[in-house]
Amino acid sequence: MSIWTRIADALAALRKGEGLAAVFEQFRTPPERSVAFTIAVIALGAKMAKADGLVTRDEVAAFREVFTIAPEDEAQAAKLFNLARQDVAGFEDYAARVAKMFGDDRAPLCDLMEGLFHIAMADGEYHEAEDAFLQRVAEILGFDDRRFRTIRAQFVPDAERDPYDVLGVSPDMPLDDIRKVWRDAVRESHPDRLMARGLPEEAIKLAEARLIAVNTAWDQINGKAA
To answer: For the chain, what are the domain ranges?
Structure first.
């Protein structure tokens, strides 16, 4: 049974008047968190896509780049996206729910932020309204400003791309310690690690931008030290 069919079954079982947030609550524990992660990305992504006043085809297509949707599941995926746009629950509510779900496990929350940045950049522009939206989500998820800037630097071409910010380290840190941070970041982006954290197999593509960014940052820092 595909992840979309499982979500569709849950949607069909909802009592009249309940929204998508009620579906989200059904998948709070492993291994069902992969379903909850998908709902969170789509619910927050759909709401963010409206932050700049227009939901573009590029932004909708971004979901297809993150989640592999089989032809037979397209109707269910579209239903979920449309429901997320219309759901009365605000984005802050969803952010708070997913923050509570994963607690101190920061990695899945970082994955979620990266997915939202991927959607934000799908139309080739990064709007002030999207930046405000993402900053608020990051705050609710428990990220400080430096961590937010680290993730933003991986996705937004015009954002400050200091290599130390990308890796989340300081310039006065010993090179060997920075190397360890870089290696840990590469290891955490391995598909097996991502799936163990509760990401659906379809969402592994989210790690690609992170890998490129951290490897580029390390090359720049290591090059300066050479």
So the answer is: 3-160
